[in-house]
Structures are given as structure tokens and as C-alpha cells.
Amino acid sequence: MKSKWQRVGMMGAALAFSQSTLADYAYNLQTPASQVAQDVFDLHNLIMLVCLGIFVVVFSAMFYSLLKHRKSLGHKAANFHENTTVEIIWTVIPFVILMGMAYPAARVVIDMKDTTNPDMTVKITGFQWKWSYDYLNDDISFYSNLSTPREQIVGTAEKGEHYLLEVDEPMVVPVGKRVRLLITANDVIHSWWVPALSVKQDAIPGFIRDSWFKADRIGTYRGQCAELCGKDHGFMPIVVEVVSEEDYKVWVEKKKGAAASAAADNTRTFDAAELIARGETVYQANCAACHQADGKGLPGVFPAISGSKIATGPIADHINVILNGRPGTAMAAFAGQLSDADIAAVVTYQRNTWDNKTGDLAQPAQIAAARGGAAGEAAAPAAQ
Amino acid sequence: MSDAVHAHDDHGHGHPSGIMRWLTTTNHKDIGTMYLWFALIMLFSAGTMALLIRAELFQPGMQLTNPDFFNQLTTMHGLIMIFGAIMPAFSGFANWQVPLMIGAPDMAFPRMNNWAFWLLPVAGILLISSFLLPGGAVAGGWTMYPPLFIQGGISYDLTILAVHILGLSSIMGSINIVTTILNMRAPGLTLMKMPLFVWTWLITAYLLLATMPVLAGAVTMLLTDRNFGTHFFNAAGGGDPVMFQHIFWFFGHPEVYILILPAFGIVSSIIPTFARKPLFGYASMVYATASIAILSFTVWAHHMFSVGMPAAAQLFFMFSTMLIAVPTGVKIFNWVATMWRGSLTFETPMLFAIAFVCLFTIGGFSGLVLAIAPVDIQLQDTYYVVAHFHYVLVSGALFSIFAGIYYWLPKWTGHMYNETLGKWHFWMSVIGMNILFFPMHFLGLAGMPRRIPDYALQFTEFNQIATVGAFIFGFSQLIFLVLVLKTVKGGAKATDQVWEGAEGLEWTLPSPAPYHTFETAPVVK
């Protein structure tokens, strides 16, 4: 704590005296990493300076009046109360200043909206509360979750440097390429925002909106969801890693290899210990935000899984809820989000943890069957 | 009309007392008083929520609340401050002052006036009691955006009901104000001789009449989407979630001026009094107010630059929004010109009015920055926006309300308030408010989203400064409470004119203003 207060003090000193330390603290937009972000940065500076100038002029006049035209100094009130010339002048001058601002602003608007001629296209989908990325040119898809450990959030562990702004799977793009973004959402409205790239586009369920950026510099750029999307709105960050063309190719190959091994898992048969261990990881990443790590949920908002009818009743119904969600509630359909192996694991975990002692195992093949037909028909006898 | 006047003549024979007096009253002064007390109670309730929010944000990590409860706090803070504190406070001023300023015996529809007020506590109880329901209060933001709003529990339906009731109350209040101003002015008081406060409320009442039904429509569609299987805002059923935002902000932007035009009126009454000089540019003030009101219907989508509108729509809404700076600038210049070469004194109402002019302008400039669509796309939904609208609503609307209370309280109670306490309240508020909200500009620029219960480490220092400011500002409002209670109870006797430079019909009446005033209309030359 002490060091924080020292920094607070230093900031005050920095504001008052020193120009050089200003760079250490954020008083302005983040350092731009694209031409559009640079244009926005310059536009903001220009408008701030004009506003500051007007503020100083107008309020110098007011404070002069407050100091000199006081009754206590014996100042007698004049009696003027209108002057058409003056009133026209101070209507026209602001209008002219505004036109001067509107012109450069309009140019940037048109540039930002021009999503033509992309080098590559990435579809981004917002979920409660994570992002998914689909690389349409390279056939890569993955989810991106907050990777800050829960212990750091509740304060039982020291907070890391990128607390709340770190993810398990960052979006990776090559430097200097026009990246077109197709942005949508799966459940509620989210907003994909990376300040250094000056992209903020709401992700609207059922609609696809596009945006674009071309990163000028290699580096890691961090952002957050900017539209209130429920309980964990503050916990779904965005990380964009801008890498060289060669590094990007290496990353693409690595992702394709990982996808192949994940597909192989879907045809395997697992034992109970494997399923429960894997299921716990899946549960923490996808379920615990609402249903809580202890499976007890939040009364009145998110139902408990521990002791619930679904997680202790027929396994087919349980799989059905996870695959298809519950329309009209915050319970999402996970059919498109999780692999057969992951769903099998998380079903097994939920049915054999906390107060749930069904002894049921689910296998990837069973999930694949449930995906195929009506969930009721797909009911398979529970393995012992 | 004559019926309404007669209804009051039986005061004195069998007029109820105690609680029944307040439940059944049709007197504009009683009703104005109730509006103001209601607003004060709501100010303290929603203020307490704000302090909880700031306490949670004092350091990174989750300490006092959980993310869901935090969202409930931000949502209810917004709803209650706007609909429970600021709007009822201005209605309180309208009830007290409009009849006194235009020389009318009461409001045009006294019984409807009673009904309009008594709907408010019902809505207030619905809103606040929803904290106790399963699932807690509404947590989807005061803007109620679907589909998030469709997901919530029973309290979301109660909130829709509360918004309907509040809207009904506002519509009845507005009909009353428009009718009173247009029909009940004293002989000789032409429209262009009306005090500016009356003008701003006339225009505000029209804004309310035009926009409250729009809000009612929007929330009704939410209600049927939630409960009756319609798909207005659900793309899967052919609806569009963004359509809600268009409808909501078509209400929501005029609403911003509903919250600030009466403030312009109060400040335009106060500055000439303490400058001992007539208001500069009266006619241009009236035209500027009307221009702002008309323009306010053409700018709504500047709240939605990040939804991804076509370039042409972004440009239209950017230009129209920038245009509002012109009439707003005219007002600022006129107030400064009113002070120029006056004979200024600095009693508490004047201090708050000067702070209003200065700090509201900061909110205006940050509004201009936000009007620039490319810059707005960086700043939308960040703390910069939080800073902007709190400069407009706290140092704007709320400070004007304080200024108006100090200005007219002697007329209402017959007692002068304690000037020392008033000055303490002013300086603590103005310092606390700036420590609280100014750092939020930097937080927004640096990239901190709004409505988050926890934040990355680089935002820590400014959040700590803001929280310190919040507690200074919050607790200094207790000074105001003490001051008002003391003034109601007693204090130096106020003269009829109260302020040396005060002009207008209300100052021709005795202090305190008698229960019935202007039973015979005064004649204005």
C-alpha cells in the first residue's frame, strides 16, 4: 500500500512540476499501434487544445469580473442587457470553430468505416464471458478465456503484472496486414475493444458487424469487453498479439496440430479419473462463473448443480441441457463451444462431484450420438 | 379553472391535518415540498449506493461486493438518481415556483398534481425493495439493453412497472405545468416577459410529453419479450437488439435536456440577482433553450457510435451533436455577460451558480469531445463517459438544485439559512466533486471500461483518488441536510424581498409565502 500512496503523491508532483515524468502515467489515449489509432489520437489532442483555449478565454473574462466587479469593492452595476452585434458574433464564431473540427473528424470516420480489401478475415464472437476467434482464411478456431487465477481476484494471491488483461489463447495476427473483423455475439451484446488499435465494435447477437485494423508495430495489445454483458463483464479481456509474418506462419501450424489432437480425443474412450480431471478444467473455464466452483450457484440468479435434478436425474437430459442450453435464460448452448470429449468430461465431473454421487460416466461417443438425433433417443445406458 | 380555485376556498374549515394533510393535499406548495423531500431521500439512497461502488473500486480485486451485486448497485444508482432524485427535485421547484412566478393561485389541475406526486413513492418502493427479491435488483444497467435485460429475474419486471409509473407521473406533471403556464399567467405577463425558469420548464414539459411515451413503448416491448414470447429485440425471431437502443435513446437524449434545462432556468434566475443587473440576452436565452430542445431529437444515435452504423449515419449524428454546442455556448456567454460589470456578491446560491457555469462547461467540452465519432469510439463505455455525464448531472443539475434551494428556501420557510454552513457545504462539495470525477477522464482515456467491479493495476491510483473524493463529496451532503432542517425549524427572519437584487412576482409576497397566494391576480406592467 505504501508504494501506491507514494505513486499517488508522485503523480500530484508530476502534474504540478515535471513534464518528463508525465510519460510514465496515462493522461491521454494509449500509444497508437495503427494509423487509424494515430489519427484518432491526433484528433483528440486537437479538439482538447481548442476546448482548452476557449475555456481559458471565457473563464478569464468571468474570473476578471468576479474579482473586479464586486459590490465589496464598491463596483456599481451597469444596466446593459442586450447587444445584438455581440450576440451574433458569439453565435457565429463557435459555429466556424465547429466546422473546423468537423472536417478532419469526418475524414477519420470514413477511413474507419472502409473495410474493403482485407489481407485476412477473422470472425469474432462474444460469449458470456469469453471470446471466440475463427480465422476464415486459415481454418483455425479457438476460445479465449481470462487466465488470471481466481486467487488473485479474491486477494489470496499476489496480483500479476497483467491482472485481468491476460488470456489463455490470444488472438494472433501478422504485422502490417489489413485484418478485417466480423464481429457478432452468441447471447447478449458485447463490445470488442482494443484501445491501441482504436477498434471498438459492439458484438450483436444475430447480426454481423465489420471493422478492421492494420497494426504497424509488433507487440501485445490488450483490451476488454466494453458493453455491459452481465455478471462477469469485467472479466472477459482481449489480447491481440501482433507478430512477424514468419512467426504467424509458425503459430498457424501449431494451432492446426493442436486441433488434430483434439479431434482424436473425440473418438477415444476414457476412464473415470481421466474424465473427472479433464471435466474439472472444463467446468472451471466454462461453468464456474455462474454455477460457482462449489456447484452451489447463486440463489435466485444461477441454479445449483450440486444436488440438482438435472445432474442427478437421467443422463440424457443432463447432456441435452449442456448441448442445447435453456432458451430465455443465461444458460448457453455448448454444442458449438465444446468438443464431445469436453462435454463428456464435464458431464461426468458434474455427476460425481459435490453432493452428486451418481457414479455415471459419459463417453465422447455418447455425446456424438446425442448431437445427431433427438436428445431423448440418444439416451445410452450409464456405464458403471 | 374556477372549480380548482374554489376547491381551495374551504381551507380552514375541516382541512385535514397530520398525515392526511399530505396525502390529500392539492396545494402546490405542499406538493412541491413533498417532491423535494422525496428527491432528497432518493439522493441519499442512491448516494449510499455510489459510495459502496466507490469503496469496492478503491483497490483492484473483489473486496466488498460480488460482480452481480456490483452491477445491481450501478444500475439502481443510475435509475434512482435520474428518476428519483433529479427529476422529482425539478418538479418540486416547478410546483413551488411556477405559480409564484406567474402570479397564479395554484397549478391548473390540483388533484392530478397530488396523484402525480403520490405515484413516485410507489415507484421508489418498487425499485428499492427489489434488492430484497430472489436474484436481487436489476443488474442490466439503467439503459436496460436487451438481450441482457431479457435474462433477469422478477425484479426486472418490477422495474419495468416502476418505469411505467414514473412515466405516468411525469406526463401528468407535464400536462399540469404546460396548462398552468399557458393559461394562468397574471394579466400583462406575456410569454416573452416570463422568468426564464418558467420558460425552461415549459420547454422541458413538452420534452417530457414527447419522450415519456416513447420510453413506455420501449419498456413495454421488453415486458412482452420477457413474458409473452414476442421477439421485438430477438434476432432469432426476426427482431433487432439495436432497435431497442434507437428507441431508448430517442427518449434518452431529450431526457438529458429534461435534466438540464430547468437547471439553466434556476441559474438564470440567480445570477442576475447577485450581479444586481438584468439577465443579458433574455430573448436569445429563450431561443437557445428552444433550439437545444429541438436539436435534442436529432442526436440520439451519438450514444450508439460503437454499434456500427453506416458512415453516413455516423456523420449525420456527429454534425447534429456538434451543433448543440452553439446554443449551449450562447447560454454560457450570456451568463458571463450578466456578471460582467455587475455589482457582485457571493452568497451560497451565487457560489453554486458560478460553479455550475464553470463546471457544466467542462462537462460540455467533454461532450464535444465525445461528439466526434472517431474519438467517441475510443471513449464510448469508458470512465471518460462517466466523468462527462457526472460533470453535467452533478456539477450541472445537482448544483443548480442546491443553488435553487438556497435561493428560495427563505421564501418557502420564512427563515434565512445559516450562511457559514452553506459556504462549508459549497466548498466541500465543489472540491470533493472535482477530486471524485476529474480523474475519471484520465481513467477513460487510459482504457478503463465503465460498469466493471474490478480493474487492471494501472488504473489503481486514479481510482483511489476518485474514491477519496467520493467520500468527501458524499459526507459533505450531511451538512446540507443539517442546514435544511435547521432552516425549516427556525433562523433569522427573512424579509419579503430576501435578496437585495431579487426581482419578480415571488418576491412581492410575504416570507414565508402564505398557504394561498395570488388569489387575486397581480397585474404585470
Characteristic terms for this protein:
heterodimer; A: 384 residues; alpha+beta; Helix Hairpins; Immunoglobulin-like; 3 domains; five-stranded mixed β-sheet; 11 helices; 10 strands; disordered C terminus; B: 525 residues; mainly alpha; 0% strand; disordered N terminus; cell membrane (chain B); transmembrane (chain B); cytochrome-c oxidase activity (chain B); heme binding (chain B); iron (chain B)
Looking at the structure, what is the overall shape of chain B? globular
CATH class of chain B: Mainly Alpha
What is the structural class of chain A?
Answer: alpha+beta
Spatially, the strands of the biggest sheet of chain A line up as: 3-2-1-5-8
Largest interface: A-B, 104 and 98 residues
The amount of helix of chain A comes to 40-55%
Topology readout:
The complex is a heterodimer of chains A (384) and B (525).
Chain A: H1 2-16, H2 35-68, H3 84-113, E1 120-127, E2 130-135, E3 140-144, H4 150-154, E4 171-174, E5 179-185, E6 190-194, E7 199-203, E8 209-213, E9 219-225, E10 237-243, H5 245-265, H6 272-286, H7 288-291, H8 309-312, H9 315-324, H10 340-351, H11 364-372
Parallel strand pairs in A: 1-5, 4-10
Antiparallel strand pairs in A: 1-2, 2-3, 5-8, 6-7, 6-9, 9-10
Helix pairs in contact in A: 2-3, 6-10, 10-11
Chain B: H1 2-9, H2 19-24, H3 28-56, H4 67-102, H5 110-129, H6 148-151, H7 154-183, H8 196-227, H9 241-258, H10 261-275, H11 282-295, H12 311-323, H13 325-339, H14 348-371, H15 373-379, H16 383-413, H17 419-446, H18 460-489
Helix pairs in contact in B: 3-4, 3-5, 3-18, 4-5, 4-7, 4-16, 5-7, 7-8, 8-9, 8-10, 8-11, 10-13, 10-14, 10-16, 11-13, 13-14, 14-16, 14-17, 16-17, 17-18
